[in-house]
Amino acid sequence: MMINVLVEQNKHWQAEVYQSVSRDKLQKLIGYLPLKQIITITGVRRCGKSTLVKQAINYLIEEGVNSGNILFVNLEHPFFLEYRHDANFLNTIYDEYLKLMNPKGKVYCIFDEVQYFDNWQVYVKSKYESSLIKFIITGSNSSMLSNDLNTLLSGRSLNIHLDTFSFSEFLDYKKIEYKGEFNQTANKIDISRAKDEYLKWGGFFEVFQIEDELIKKELLTSYAKNIIYQDIVPRYNIRNSEVVERLYFYLLTTASGILNYTTLAKIFEVSDRTIKEYIQYFEEVYLLKRIDKFHNKPKEKIKSFKKVYSLDNGFLQLPSKHSSDLGLALENMVFNVLNQRSESVTYLKEIHEVDFYSDDTLYQVTYDMRDERTKEREVNAFNYFKFKHNVKKKVITYDSEMNLAEIECIKLERFILEGL
């Protein structure tokens, strides 16, 4: 039976070429392949981790690596379920592969969704010193991978984080040319239509392949529930799983808002501590992300009220009372872009509020800056906060551009595509 599973999962052994979908992180992965370190690829379920490593398999074979020297194992396969508490079974899988393929020289061993096996890192560490094995590991839980790697594999791994498709990758998929001012001008209608679609439905590959919006929503709902019931509930032995699900969908209705743990605890009739733990679990599986209020003192920043965002815009469509406000979708998308560019994204709030502060730049997000009251509100917010050093001030809009003294007003697609 195991032989059947391995043959089924390793189509390249039969000279099959895997589907190629352009992802920006592929070149980074290729650059890591010659190095000894273990490569870990993290990201939310269904974001394309398996596809990315299969593209790397295509590359290795094109570069002359024997297909039999590459082992790919999806550890979520039902056959492995009864062995998931026995890390030694990973060795059994590898030994079965050696008998089956009898590889000569270096082996590329890929364990997909490795978090399904307890103590997997013990097995990987035991094999790491062998110069004949190059490990590539994917996982959907940031805490487990980082904690396990730091404990036993410190200094022995290189991580690649994969998000759902970015807007530029989405345009690549649609074959819409966008690089350079000429292409952005010539294809502005197609880019604008793609922007509307991406703002609403996000970057999951399987979702944007579907035309029917009802099916898109059903698919995203299944993604969210699978993550909750496969990656959160069993891992943390949560008995009241219904509360976890309800909390997640409720938080989607408050995206971009400030979290109040006490209020949430009353709504869901659990403790503040439980609410905080559940939200942390959502972060660990890449569903949501909290950001701090900016403060010069790190302790004050940590204690500050948090704002919460969805790590894919499509999930904002899931609650039965989801907001149809494009301004919310716009702000959530800008957050995701900033979050991918920088490890430090905060917000400012006193009498006035500034949506984001990152890399010495203040960002406001507003649908349209042409209204005079909107201009006044955004300018006042920028001017309220004083810094000892110069900071840039930018307003990201749906489609309007202008300059207001020191404030640069940029439409969303230019902000993303030109890295502004």
- CATH H level, superfamily name of the largest domain: P-loop containing nucleotide triphosphate hydrolases
Query: Would you tell me the overall average pLDDT?
Result: 92
Subunit arrangement of the protein: single chain
Give the CATH architecture of the largest domain: 3-Layer(aba) Sandwich
- How is the largest sheet built, in terms of strand order? 8-9-10-11-13-12
The amount of beta strand, in percent, is 15-25%
β-strand number: 13
Largest sheet: 6 strands, mixed
Distance between the termini: 54 Å
Please estimate the helix content: 40-55%
Q: Give the overall silhouette.
A: globular
Q: Structural class of the helices, strands and pairings?
A: alpha/beta
CATH topology of the largest domain: Rossmann fold
* Whole-angstrom Rg: 23 Å
Broad CATH class of the largest domain: Alpha Beta
The number of helical elements comes to: 18
Question: Could you explain how this protein is built, in words?
Answer:
- With 420 residues, this protein is α/β, with parallel strands linked by helices.
- The chain has four domains: 2-162, Rossmann fold, CATH 3.40.50.300; 166-209, no CATH class; 211-324, Winged helix-like DNA-binding domain superfamily/Winged helix DNA-binding domain (Arc Repressor Mutant, subunit A, Orthogonal Bundle); 334-420, Trna Endonuclease, Chain: A, domain 1, CATH 3.40.1350.
- 45% of the residues lie in helices and 15% in strands.
- It contains 18 helices and 13 strands.
- The protein has helices spanning 2-9, 26-32, 49-62, 88-101, 120-128, 142-152, 167-173, 181-186, 188-201, 205-208, 213-232, 241-253, 261-268, 272-284, 298-303, 326-341, 372-384, 412-417, and strands at 38-42, 70-74, 107-112, 133-139, 157-161, 288-291, 307-310, 346-349, 353-358, 361-365, 392-397, 402-404, 407-411.
- The chain has a six-stranded mixed β-sheet. A five-stranded parallel β-sheet has the order 2-3-4-1-5, with helices on both faces.
- The termini are far apart.
- The model has no long low-confidence stretch (mean pLDDT 92).
